[in-house]
Amino acid sequence: MQDKLQKLLDEYQENYNRFTYGHYLDPNNIEDAIKTGLVGCYYLDQGYLPEKRQAIGQVLALYDKYWGNKLKFGFLDGNPNQLHPYQKFSIDKKQDLINNYAFETLNFYWSNVDNLEFVPEYFIETFSKPEWYEKLHQDITYVQLYLPISELKEFGVEQLIALNQQISEILQPMHGFFGLGIQHSHEYYDYQYLEYELAHQFLGLDISNDEDDEHLRDGFKCINWLTILSDQLITDKLGSLETLKERNNDNEIRFYPYTGGVVVRAGEVPELGDVASNPYPKHYVNVNALLKPARAPEIASLGFGSINGEVRFNNRTSKEWQSRFDDVEATDIAVSHEQQSAEVINMDSKVRISIQTGQLCPHTGVYSAQINGKVEYRELIQGYKVEPFIDSETQQVYNDVTWQLLRREDGGNVFRD
């Protein structure tokens, strides 16, 4: 596993500038507007109950135990306009204050940054509405946390899995996830177009910006390295844990039960899912197929409306993102069992449907191309001529580009017959 972990950390560093954007408000180029790291989120029903609020306080104390020294500023009363030093209140006092919000909106946010415009590396947040609001609007409570990817090595892979078991046992969520995702600031709305681009460049990344979505009452949002399922969700949608284990044919999909549910692990370490090299990691594809019946049939849009013509997620593309691991060929490389050598073979030997500038698009969907050393994406529509590509930064026009089909809107095959 150490080799796989080091390979992931190396891949992360090599691609760091592809998924990290410095913030224009920081002339020193230290603070970021968007970045990638470890993201966990746990979705709760009836989060307004006093025992649920107490459980949320326990999880804050658990995060504080390991990373409290990293947290600097935030708020406890839902007011982002008035930040407080994290150490201003003891963890016992914070838990008392959380319990005092037992029947009101509970919203706290603690991170390692002193400006909510910037993206934190260490962060924990909760948003929970009162009973009357939840029953009327069906919003759900969530607890979300961030960690830098370095914690896979520093805290430990197995320790992070055990921590997710512990958090899940405390919170008793309907479902949840933990793995690589896009980390954003409290003021994330301006950067949804960047999230859209990154989500189509790295398919292993979670997009987490609508966590109280009522659709998540019907199932989990999407798989990740760790997917958390309650016993109730398993019973309702998957039969039983034993049945799930019997259906599993991938020895790197592992199950970590806790009282009230199970954590399902897809492979030794998280995956970036870089479309340029390994868009459909084998274990992600397999765990997606295994757990798909328990997935929410739909989710709310992961983006708001465009304000300046930029592309953001809409309802259709959000659904496509949610189902991006459905009915695809895994692209992991694997050791050939026919040979004793370390020779590797590529599992994705098929040729993707491609189209050149000036040709008529054969299938509506998402296409990618390598242009001037970067991976670019376009949504093309069947029957329309593919127009030249114009670089948004340099305004250079590219008249000879070959686009490869990544996902068809009609769900059809993306490979040539």
From TrEMBL:
It comes from the Bacteria. It comes from Frischella perrara. Pfam families: TsiV. This is DUF3396 domain-containing protein. InterPro entries: TsiV. The lineage of its organism: Bacteria, Pseudomonadati, Pseudomonadota, Gammaproteobacteria, Orbales.
